[in-house]
Amino acid sequence: MLVGILIGTGIGIALGTVSGLIPGIHANTMAGLLLSLQAVLLLFLDPIALAAAMFAALVTHTFLDIIPSTFLGIPDADTALAVLPAHALCLEGKGEEAVRISALGSAFGVVLSLPIAAFCFLVLPTAQPLIDWGIGLLILAVAGFLIVISESPAWAAAVFGVSGLLGLFTFRFSYLAWHTVGDSAVLMPLLAGLFGISVLLTASRGAMPPQQFRGLDTADLEVGKGSVLGAVAGAMVGWMPGLSNATANALLTTLVGYDSRPREYILATGAANTVNAFLGLAALYALSRTRNGVMVALSAGDLPPMTLLLLAGVLAGVCAYLLTILLASSATRLGSINITALNYSVIGFVVLLALLLSGPFGGLVLLLATAVGLVPQLVNVRRVYCMGAIMLPVMLYSFGIAVP
């Protein structure tokens, strides 16, 4: 049994590394691949190893996905807002520091997720009806607070509303997209337009500054505070239905400003993304509810004891942390690269990827999202209000207004 866990974890780490480093590919895709091949894989692996591979891939992905966000400025569903301060640090020559901070947050997330998952598993199921009822109100309160504290509440509300309508349009007609990587295919062009291409089009020009690592510029208090806040946010969205890492990133902006305290925000989102993975597993076992594609794939077979999958997740977290640090150290090779050429190359890659993964509809969503994503800078409000694309559909869904 232990050998199976180790083999499955190794496979999951490899798959999670691939999905984390390639924009547009998620651990959900890897879980779907394993599920589609399970008839063949079960000839060589036991079911526990297969389940361990799926969960280890998810945990590994939460560590590695910060790398393309930092060095290329390409977000995915888990790094939509974190890409802004991380890429900004990269343009200051501190990309490795940004990646190391995120990895540290994810590592703390692994540690904190175990007691949080145990508490939620044992205590919260009896209160689940009340929790389900309050999700929409929570998101409404967070969105309202963000708008009120904006430099220009009217423009903030407008950006939130327009991006929310774009999100509703995207999810309502998502069946028009090519679902090459599963049902989440439309998220890639939506978030890449709002937080990726729109940023790269207005980014600085010239040469990439030399990437040098001189240690983490974070106080112990910031590390502790950011880790705890991120863990709480990740636990909330991991346990509650309909929420995602992108929602956790938006929640964290009410407590940690990504523009005023970028390092603490990167650390907090790293912790949130990893805790979300573990809490999704706890919700599967406690409530028989699936929070992401990996949990859907796990529920399709016989579930092994949760403790075994938690062990696989912890082992994957340790290996993923070391792997992230190793890959981050290669940032020194980026020095003196022409930023303009790099930005346009990344934009071309994202456009091609959106068309390949979700077809012409994905291209349309990418174009509309890029247009909306350019507005915050023009009217001098923070880009966080573009998270209406995720928050408004989730809010309506929680109020019983279905978003097909």
Throw out a few tags for this protein.
single chain; 404 residues; 17 helices; 0% strand
Précis, in short:
The chain has 404 residues and is mostly helical. Helices cover 72% and strands 0% of the residues.
Topology of this protein?
Elements: H1 2-21, H2 27-36, H3 38-41, H4 47-64, H5 66-71, H6 83-91, H7 95-123, H8 128-148, H9 153-172, H10 187-201, H11 220-239, H12 245-253, H13 262-287, H14 293-299, H15 306-328, H16 339-379, H17 388-398
Helix pairs in contact: 1-4, 1-15, 2-4, 2-14, 4-13, 4-14, 4-15, 6-7, 7-11, 7-13, 7-15, 8-9, 8-17, 9-16, 9-17, 10-16, 11-12, 11-13, 12-13
Write structural notes for this entry:
The chain has one domain (2-207, 219-398). The protein is 72% helix and 0% strand. It contains 17 helices and no strands. Helix 4 (47-64) packs parallel to helix 15 (306-328), helix 6 runs antiparallel to helix 7 and helix 12 packs across helix 13. The longest helix has 41 residues, at 339-379. The model has no long low-confidence stretch (mean pLDDT 84). Pfam families: TctA. InterPro entries: DUF112_TM. Keywords: Membrane, Transmembrane, Transmembrane helix. Residues 9-387 form the DUF112 domain.
Measured by DSSP, the beta-strand proportion falls in: under 5%
Which structural category do the helix and sheet elements fall into?
mainly alpha
Number of strands: 0
Into which percent range does the helicity of residues fall? over 70%
H/E element order:
HHHHHHHHHHHHHHHHH
Rg result: 20 Å
Q: Alpha-carbon distance between the termini?
A: 42 Å
Mean pLDDT: 84
Number of domains: 1
